[in-house]
Structure to design on (430 residues):
């Protein structure tokens, strides 16, 4: 939640703004409150002691939106489902990377996505979504939320504007569009969604239906280093912090970031349904955030080298790497506007021989790890059609360009020449 300006929340040195990498070391934490400890201790507690009954009552009034004159601007520590020092430290530090007012952390990426969508879309409402999305999100929107009366309409991420607008018209016939949900670049096909267009559509919806839906963007694949959606037209960013921010394949967490206006209902619902994150995982995330820029930039550079090797290999039919977008194309223009020269370290490629060829290569890898997830220090690879996106309707997968031989790889920070050698020997087994 919005915090008062304090010495340990200063974002500038005189007239010089401090970078997120610098702020990640100390922002939001006062060592004097923790016996001078240079790093925040883990506040492994369920509840907090009030100094008086009146103080406890005031904290609960502020948390519940019932503040009275004389109450504090923000609630003090109450109960770890609502707030906790470790939660507040990581939330504060995430905001500086995205230039957001507030952040909320969650028990998983899907916890973040579910809570955000439920905070805005109710029974009878409609979600306009791009596709493909992460498999769990597709399942949530298409299969779970309809059980609670929430409908959806989709458009293909790389579709022309006219086609996207037609999807919007169809959505409006079904009810009030309460959210525009997208993921860019897409997982796993690396298509690009134009966030400026999403903002335009949201603004137009505000005029036409009397309610402007938030533009919600899953920024897991490129952020927080490669892309800043809030500066490109988004209202809310969601993350699987499990991936690059956590970055060591040793935790599960999620986040949502945005303005105080948009975060208020999200935070309220998180407290109500208990999708909050625990103190220990918050402590681990704060540790990892200190090196996220170094890790992501190293992985991005490794991915470029591996992608170039795969692109020239006779047993690879197509490499879906953002650095290979055709110059001057619609996707290239949008990607350059939104992410500059950052092309990420997660991409898919199509192996010759369909699923049989893909499985032969996967089973032969010795350095690259055969596992789902992405954004770790180690290189991970999987076959989305039979794992992460197995629950997505086969006809939809086909419509979105999935092939039987498509595999997704997340390049880590190993020696890139070792990775190339591993792919070379594994592809020879096809």
């Amino acid at each position: 939640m919005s915090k008062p300006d304090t010495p340990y929340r200063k974002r500038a040195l005189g007239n010089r703004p401090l970078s997120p990498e610098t702020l990640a070391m100390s922002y939001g934490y006062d060592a004097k409150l923790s016996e001078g400890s240079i790093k925040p201790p883990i506040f492994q507690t369920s509840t907090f002691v009030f100094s008086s009954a009146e103080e406890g009552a005031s904290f609960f009034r502020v948390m519940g939106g019932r503040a009275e004159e004389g109450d504090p601007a923000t609630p003090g520590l109450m109960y770890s489902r609502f707030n906790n020092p470790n939660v507040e430290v990581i939330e504060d530090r995430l905001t500086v990377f995205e230039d957001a007012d507030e952040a909320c952390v969650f028990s998983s990426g899907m916890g973040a996505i579910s809570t955000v969508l439920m905070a805005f879309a109710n029974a009878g409402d409609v979600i306009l979504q791009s596709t493909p999305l992460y498999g769990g999100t597709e399942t949530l929107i298409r299969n779970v939320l309809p059980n609670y009366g929430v409908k959806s309409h989709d458009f293909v991420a790389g579709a022309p504007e006219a086609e996207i607008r037609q999807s919007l018209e169809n959505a409006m016939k079904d009810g009030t569009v309460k959210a525009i949900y997208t993921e860019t670049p897409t997982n796993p096909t690396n298509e690009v969604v134009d966030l400026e267009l999403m903002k335009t559509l949201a603004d137009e919806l505000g005029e036409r239906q009397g309610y402007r839906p938030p533009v919600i963007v899953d920024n897991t694949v490129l952020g927080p280093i490669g892309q800043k959606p809030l500066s490109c037209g988004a209202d809310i960013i969601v993350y699987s912090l499990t991936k690059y921010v956590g970055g060591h394949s040793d935790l599960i967490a999620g986040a949502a970031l945005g303005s105080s206006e948009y975060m208020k209902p999200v935070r309220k619902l998180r407290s109500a349904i208990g999708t909050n994150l625990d103190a220990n995982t918050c402590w681990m995330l704060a540790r990892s955030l200190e090196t996220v820029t170094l890790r992501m930039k190293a992985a991005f550079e490794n991915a470029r080298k591996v992608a170039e090797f795969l692109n020239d290999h006779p047993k690879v039919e197509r490499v879906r790497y953002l650095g290979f977008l055709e110059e001057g194309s619609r996707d290239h223009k949008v990607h350059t506007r939104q992410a500059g020269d950052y092309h990420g370290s997660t991409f898919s490629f199509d192996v010759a021989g369909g699923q049989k060829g893909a499985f032969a290569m996967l089973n032969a890898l010795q350095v690259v790890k055969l596992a789902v997830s992405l954004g770790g220090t180690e290189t991970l690879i999987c076959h989305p059609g039979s794992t992460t996106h197995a629950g997505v309707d086969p006809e939809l997968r086909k419509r979105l360009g999935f092939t039987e031989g498509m595999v997704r790889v997340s390049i880590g920070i190993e020696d890139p020449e070792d990775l190339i050698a591993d792919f070379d020997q594994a592809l020879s087994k096809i």
Observations:
- The chain is about 40% helix and 15% strand.
- The longest helix spans residues 292-311.
